Amino acid sequence: MCIVANQSMAVIANLGLEVTELLLRIKELEEQQLAFRNSVICALNQLLDLKDINTGVHSTRLAEWAIRVARKMNIPEEGNYQVEVAALLHDIGKIGVPDAVLKKNGPLTAEERAIINRHPEYSWSILRLFPGLEEASLYALHHHENVDGTGYPAGLKGQSIPLVSRIISVIDAYDAMVSNRCYRKGLPHTEAMARLIQSSGTQFDADVVKAFIPIAEKETADVFEAAGTSTAAAL
Ligand SMILES: [Fe+2]
Questions:
Q1: Which domains does the chain have, with CATH numbers?
Q2: Distance 118 CA to ligand 1 centre (A)
Q3: Which residue has the higher pLDDT, 52 or 202?
Q4: Rounded to two decimals, what is the model's pTM?
């Protein structure tokens, strides 16, 4: 009886060891999968740099802005990964826009504008292929919606636009306005702010603009620096 009990204890102990080993292996595989996904995300951002350096660098800054605004708007920290990826790769679909249209100097024709306006759908179609990035793909899909329903691709209104998409819309516009380009100087902070406030409630979500104002006032230099750029550079 005693021998049987001892054998049973040994079997249970062995099973316990096997379970621990399996759990460790699962954790290891999960870490490898996350590292691989992060490498692909960085590679996609590099591709965007190669396609259009302005868009690539701007997107890197948007990831910085987005996390700061998300925290200010009390989005739970566990959602930060999706926020960061969506901000970083919201314009990845621009890879599908021909250079002759994307980099055209001068006004776009209606047809060219329609081609550019497809880029949020292209971004969605790329990001949705990654297991675990379904949320980020939806945020990217709706980053050009306006709260009054005049945006694209779906013409969503107000709170039916995901909050992260509404955040990206505001920081995207601000960062583009204040950035220098080879062909034009960026707007002063005060002018960019005035334009955000003017379109608050029509193009932009008023609460997001309100949350963003103090961040833009205090953290613009930090955000540019964190992305390896400066407010003085033409990028
Ligand atoms: Fe965009």
A1: 2-226 (1.10.3210.10)
A2: 9
A3: 202
A4: 0.85
